[in-house]
Amino acid sequence: MKKKYLDICQSITEQIRSGRIKPETYLPSENEMVKEYQASRETIRKALNLLAQNGYIQKIRGKGSMVLNTSKFDFPVSGLVSFKELAGKMSEPPQTILNGLSLGEAGGFIKKELQLEEGDLVWDVLRTRKMGGERIILDRDFLAEKHVPHLTGDICRDSIYQYLEKELNLNISFAKKEIIVEEPTDEDRSLLDLDGFQNVVVIRSHVYLNDASLFQFTESRHRPDKFRFTDFARRALH
Amino acid sequence: MKKKYLDICQSITEQIRSGRIKPETYLPSENEMVKEYQASRETIRKALNLLAQNGYIQKIRGKGSMVLNTSKFDFPVSGLVSFKELAGKMSEPPQTILNGLSLGEAGGFIKKELQLEEGDLVWDVLRTRKMGGERIILDRDFLAEKHVPHLTGDICRDSIYQYLEKELNLNISFAKKEIIVEEPTDEDRSLLDLDGFQNVVVIRSHVYLNDASLFQFTESRHRPDKFRFTDFARRALH
DNA sequence: CAGTGGTCTAGACCACCTC
DNA sequence: AGGTGGTCTAGACCACTGA
């Protein structure tokens, strides 16, 4: 199934990212794009709305679609991105250390978080992320065994998300996240280079598949000086 | 200008929030809604897409639109919400203290952040937010005088956003934000009840109007134990 | 198979901006 | 007045689900 509006969106995204279309200038009008892309106006508008949602353009009535400046806006923890995808956009390559991988019956806490039944099994994955020689992030993932029957150390050291989407064809769809600041646990102190920091930033996520079933609960614990979260937000319509 | 898809969206939102439509159940099909709301299917779909973006429903092909559980998901720092709007959803009423309000020529730092010209004026607003008797948040707002010619202490103590949107009819459209953790400044220590915390959480925002012009730069500094950010994120299409 | 949501179209009317 | 984006429509075909 090829989606025309996605093609158009990617085409324009590419032109903006490469600098062929400059910030503060206007895109061709929707009617011009209708001819250029051989698509109906609604299809063009679908593509443009995607760009607007992601902060690439601002549509201004009576004038046109202005390209926004997206530089300095390059660390998309926002959205739903795995560490490997994120790392690909960083200057220096990070490193993943697998500290633990086990499959077992869900305990009380995690059984509740993943809404599991009595006797359901869960994977417990513990990984450290190293950047610039220092252990900066501690990730603990819980994955429901009924959705992910098989998991290996190699997959965890590479990218779990890649495996789930490419191999298992799971459709990761949305997540609810919360960011808070906590005191370091003993585990944080032993597995991270905390350098005397009194706090860690904790991101807790519940991740859902296309059919709205919950399959993953993650806790990502960051050294505060290396933590940065950026977001593009549109004001809700009223 | 009445927008049918917004009416439909609000109608369904209201039914979900009030509990008349329960989580884990399906909405009527799009074709049924076409009759119910006397609208075309594309208009219905526009409304449903808004609901999906905001985490109210999950659309599942071949099955329907499932209502998601939105409880425990109640602190929308995400999106673009002013403190007053946020406070309205909290149990206990918070309090705003105005620590400073001045209009002056833009200095080097803020001139750059707000992309101002030589001689442009900016408002500098400093406010403390008190919750449960403790001073928890320190907000510093810079607003370009060319967009906001007039500002008073009463407006700052109430809600700047309300004034901008209701009185000045400014259309606040989008913001770029960043969240990081810093050491407290002397100002933080004197104006907040830091209780010995070694860090503050800082949210920096650049806020833009409908015509893509930058009009506000804000720094919001939070005591870490009272900070919480929640987010609903959909995975980017590929 | 019928029903669901996903994509696409061609055309209409409106509100806004600019000249 | 002419061009821009914003809303809405009626209809078509497709892909997926479940009985």
TrEMBL record, chains A, B:
Coiled coil: none
Molecular function per GO: DNA binding; DNA-binding transcription factor activity
Pfam families (UniProt xref): GntR, UTRA
SMART domains, per database record: HTH_GNTR (SM00345), UTRA (SM00866)
Keyword Protein transport carried by entry: no
Keyword annotations: DNA-binding, Transcription, Transcription regulation
The HTH gntR-type domain, residue ranges: 2-70
Gene Ontology biological-process annotations: negative regulation of DNA-templated transcription
InterPro entries noted in UniProt: Bact_HTH_transcr_reg (IPR050679), Chorismate_lyase_/UTRA_dom_sf (IPR028978), TreR (IPR012770), Tscrpt_reg_HTH_GntR (IPR000524), UTRA (IPR011663), WH-like_DNA-bd_sf (IPR036388), WH_DNA-bd_sf (IPR036390)
Cross-referenced PANTHER family: HTH-TYPE TRANSCRIPTIONAL REGULATOR TRER, MANNOSYL-D-GLYCERATE TRANSPORT/METABOLISM SYSTEM REPRESSOR MNGR-RELATED
Protein's recorded name: Trehalose operon repressor
Species: Bacillus infantis NRRL B-14911
